[in-house]
Amino acid sequence: MGLMVLFGIDGSDGSVGSRVSNPTRLQVIHRLPMPNLNDELHHSGWNACSSCFGDPTRTRNRLILPSLISSRIYVIDVGTEPRAPRIHKTVEPIDLYWKCGLANPHTSHCLASGQVMISCMGEPAGGGKGGFVLLDGETFEVVGNWEHPGEAAPFGYDFWYQPRHNVMISTEWGAPKALVHGFNPAHVKEGQRSCNSHNCAVSKRLMIKTRIQSEGSEVTGEMDQNHLEPRTHRTETVHHQNHQKVLMVLMFPQKGDWAAEKVIRVPSKKVEGWMLPEMPGLITDILISLDDRFLYFSNWLHGDIRQYDITDRRNPQLVGQVFLGGSIIRDGPVKVLEDPEKKEQPAPCIIKGKRVPGSPQMLQLSLDGQRLYVTTSLFSGWDKQFYPDMMREGSVMMRIDVDAERGGLSLNRDFLVDFGQEPDGPALAHELRYPGGDCTSDIWV
Question: What is the pLDDT of residues 134-180, one digit of tens each?
């Protein structure tokens, strides 16, 4: 059963300077259970964001919750009673199947037109298909496809658009039927996983360029963009499946097109006691602070969160790092034989007497840049494969204190939300949202 949980954190909201005492800190305020099983609530988005700036009729009062497995989309009313959200509308899978030929919705963003656009990862039979569903911004009925007939990409995943440059960039992951049960290296050779990214002209809804990575040896991931810079750099993750490295790709406008540079590399570790002789990094979430100075990402297999000063976009500097579990903890079954970065394996993460199962995954930064919140569940099939203890104990939410002036990360050992203690049994918490908007959901115009 899917579950949306509302609880108090450290301030009344995520705004700059919001460090007031909160009487509901770490307490559940409201639970909203979903009425169906096997939905796999994954990412979420708002019905309105900064792209609607200047339109007084638009308010951020609906949260869009796509279900990655069932293909159902829930529209949650968070405006009528902010402390008691409720289901406003359910878009059934058949509407996506029949009207769009799509399934497995992943990322949702509002458009300046008032519509909501959702990227999809597959077609109804479970194969790969990277198209986009449009919802009416008032009724939330399925309008149809964003892309023109025949323009769907082979696979889908994340996307972001930028009105300043009339560009949208989307990434690929793989066929849903190949992902649902976990990672299988053979799927790369079978062509069921991919690494390409696509540039589209927003105004024409037209794919204009596909950037291909190393003949299927990589898988692209999450995306983010700068908030303030008119030039709007974009950053995406690329996961090499040849187990040599994980890298960050900087994309920037150049002579009417978009160029790409590899700017951050996370080397693999030679190991024994794992499924492969080398353990690659796996960057599963990424965000950029509102002042565009720091980039953060979670490295889900190795178990760390990193903070880079990206003042010089082509030369990011690592200024903060913290390990919060992962697959290479020193008392675990994996022995690291060779590590280009660390001399010893990290200690297990223990907060308030609880050993944290799993590894850092989704990130959300407070708007003042001083508190970084993290959850540990990636995708149930992958959680079960890599971190089976989390399936029994539930995931957690943690807080990282950030030095927003000089850089630096430190775990706050007084903060822990244990989703293993939910009344209906352990839960796998994935994405976080602030009620008033956050660093990762707005399209900036």
Answer: 999 999 999 999 999 988 888 889 888 877 777 788 888 889 998 88
Confidence class for position 267, pLDDT limits 50, 70, 90 = very high
Task: Average the pLDDT over each of 20-29, 199-208, 391-400, 433-442 and give the range with the smallest value.
Answer: 199-208
Neighbours of 282 (CB within 10 A): 23
Tokens encoding 250? 């900087």
pLDDT of amino acid 48: 87
Torsion sign across C-alpha atoms 2, 4, 9, 14: positive
Rounded distance, CA 351 to CA 370, Å? 20
The model's pTM = 0.88
Least confident of 95-109, 226-240, 292-306, 404-418: 226-240
Partner residues linked to 25 by β-bridges:
8
Residue whose token pair is 């069932």: 70
Rg of the chain's alpha carbons, rounded to an integer?
Answer: 20
CB atoms within 10 A of CB 52: 23
Residue type, position 444, single letter: W
